[in-house]
Amino acid sequence: MTLTAYYYDGISSHRHDVTLMFSDDGRIHLRGQSLVQDYAVQSIVKSSRLGKTVRLIDFADGARLEVPANGELDQFMDRFQVGKVEGLIHRLEHSLKYIAIAVLVTALTAWGFLVYGIPAISERIAYALPVDIQNDLGEGVLEALDGYVFTESQVDKGRQASIQAWFDKLKTGQPHAERLQLQFRNSELMGANAMALPSGTIVVTDGLVALSQNDEEIAAVLAHEIGHVEHRHSLRAAIQNSGVAVVIALMLGDVSSISSFATALPTLMVNMKYSRNFETEADNFARTLMQEQGIPLHYFADILTRLGESHHAEDAETSFFDSHPAVKERILQFQQ
Amino acid sequence: MDSGNKHIPIEFTGRGLEYFGIWIVNILLTIITIGIYRPWAKVRTRKYFYNNTRIDGSVFDYHANPVAILKGWLVVFAFLVAYNIISSINPGMGMVFSAVIMLMVPWAVVRSRAFNLRNTSYRNVRFYFGTDTMKSYKVFAIVGIPYVLFVLSSAFTMSFMPDPSERLVAPPPPPHALALMGITGFTALMLTPLFITRLYQFLVNGSALGRSHFTTQLRARVFYKVYGLAFVIAMVVFAVIFFGLKAFANPDFIRSVATTQQEAQAIVLLITIVVMLLYMFSIYLISAYTTVATLNEVWNKTRIQDNHFLSELRVLRYGWILLSNAFFILITLGLYTPWAKVRMMRYRVENLSIQAADDLNNFIDQRRDEMSALGEEMGDALDLEFGF
């Protein structure tokens, strides 16, 4: 069993061409032009088995062998128990079967963590934090919107008052009810809409009021928005989004800034999924609140249907990029 | 030209599929061990790339002890936790803390490079980096001092600014404060290419293979040209984006073009995508330009013993590799990453070669003590790799 290799004594970079011979008593014999050396396998302090190109063997006296990768060499090493752990990892890295398993396990773990782990952890954190921390999140949002998108509401004061009355009714009994405030705004750009700010302020547009046929429908929408506030969705979204970014960065590990753009698409998809979960949670909250207040559930279904028509929501199925579940699915929960 | 000059190309024998196995198992083991395996993964990755880099038939190697790296990471982690706690209790103290961390950067750069080089070998002779920390501080001071002055003058200017809620109605800060900010900021900017020149010179001249030092003579003029041009291009791109956004991303324009809310949302989405793409392209191309120009310049002026280097990287090719790598990583949800790394490494290595004056057999090792990995991981955590 002979091989050729390079030998370096560790004192200078002088390269010796040597032939190797292995004997059954566990000794390695080197023969070079001006070199005759003998090593017991016990004097190997380190050997690396990485990839298909080269094997590096370090001896106790500081010398090193550079050997083109070779099956017989590997067999010799295995026989004399050299570098067992590394050999095991190396086998993992080069066996297609184990690689496939690794890909599968990694993908499953990542998926599981992203879909269940992060939301669960974020929820814990969000409820553990003081409720006023959310005020910072939305600070200035309403002011900014007032500058760009909102104008003063044109809804008649009487109508505003009756809707406010419904709001106050829905508010009673909610934890931190004093944070919940109702605001009316007009917005051509946003059309018929309602939004909940993390500070507890809920905005209703004139378009939504116009679209509704009675106050109960608005109350249903308000119940949904209150659900967003009570469930601390903005805070949880903020925590979840940073969690996702960190997980994906960790997985792709030590790559350059390439990965920051490459993670954008999967991050977006994951965030949209989280958003659909929040909408469902808010829907469930609304259903419970409406039942408690004795508001027939079909009012929510009615306004949702009309909203869907006004926003030309032709897609019947929810896609990966929808921030809301499909209207059809949501209405099903509110038939009564 | 000396006689007996041999042109030695540098080869890279790594393969994407082969590295993929190593990469995915690294991730798997890191997940299973909740991150503890990371230093081992890092060492294994480095070893793979070094072992596949071949000059004149001999390969490089990396010898770092993962345990030492792990200890270094734990120290940095502790620092980060302390910083977070301190700054949430007392923001003032937090700022002091981060200032202290910034002051440690020149030290960390030296220690990090020393650790990496001393754990790298060629033909069983180790590389070295002289730990001249004073010199490092002098180099960083070139841009550090103006930068510190800029930060101080910004804080001074901010002290004139009222609460955010009153910002719209309050008068602007006094002109002398703004002028101070402007002058210090401008100085810091203008000195940056000089700093970069001196930094690379410091990094190269302090490095050695065995007892033989690398030497380089860099001229600031070259770096001013390169970074000046990059800066101008960046400003042009930002101006285009800024004015483009002003023209197209305002409610009046959108209202005049869109008829339904669907259309309005579609237009906003389109604008966002265009801006993102423009930004991404520019960043990649500008950084390709500065990276290629810098690496070429530094390598081409570097010698060791009587050997020279020749670096022939091309901006467009390099930029193309960056962009296409990003694209493929994106559409494969990250799985393309190992191929991307191998591809970039191959390009960089195979466009570097040596004009050797002899057979490279005359490097003598210096024996020094092992060193701790503390600096290495500070450098890692603060992202101080220079890729050189």
Keywords:
heterodimer; A: 336 residues; alpha+beta; seven-stranded antiparallel sheet; four-stranded mixed sheet; 13 helices; rod-shaped; B: 388 residues; ten-stranded antiparallel β-barrel; 65% helix; 11% strand; globular
Question: Hey, roughly how much beta strand do the residues of chain A contain?
Answer: 15-25%
Strand content of chain B: 5-15%
Largest sheet of chain B: 10 strands, antiparallel, barrel
Q: Classify the oligomer.
A: heterodimer
Which structural class do the helices and strands of chain A define? alpha+beta
Strand order of the largest sheet of chain B: 1-2-3-4-5-6-7-8-9-10
Kindly describe this structure:
The complex is a heterodimer of chains A (336) and B (388). Chain A is α+β, with helices and mostly antiparallel strands and 336 residues long. Chain A contains 13 helices and eleven strands. Chain A has helices spanning 71-79, 84-94, 96-128, 133-137, 141-148, 157-171, 206-211, 215-230, 233-252, 258-262, 264-293, 298-310, 327-332; strands at 2-8, 16-23, 27-32, 36-40, 44-49, 54-59, 64-68, 151-152, 181-186, 194-196, 201-205. Chain A has a seven-stranded antiparallel β-sheet with strand order 4-3-2-1-7-6-5. In chain A, strands 8-9-11-10 form a four-stranded mixed β-sheet. In chain A, β1 (2-8) and β2 (16-23) form a beta hairpin. In chain A, α3 runs antiparallel to α9 (233-252) and α9 (233-252) runs antiparallel to α11 (264-293). Chain A is rod-shaped, with a radius of gyration of 34 Å. Chain B has 388 residues and is α+β, with helices and mostly antiparallel strands. Chain B has a ten-stranded antiparallel barrel, surrounded by five helices. In chain B, a hairpin with a 2-residue loop joins β2 and β3. In chain B, 31% of the residues are buried. Residues 381-388 of chain B have low confidence and may be disordered.
Summarize the structure.
The complex is a heterodimer of chains A (336) and B (388). Chain A contains 13 helices and eleven strands. With 336 residues, chain A is an alpha+beta fold.
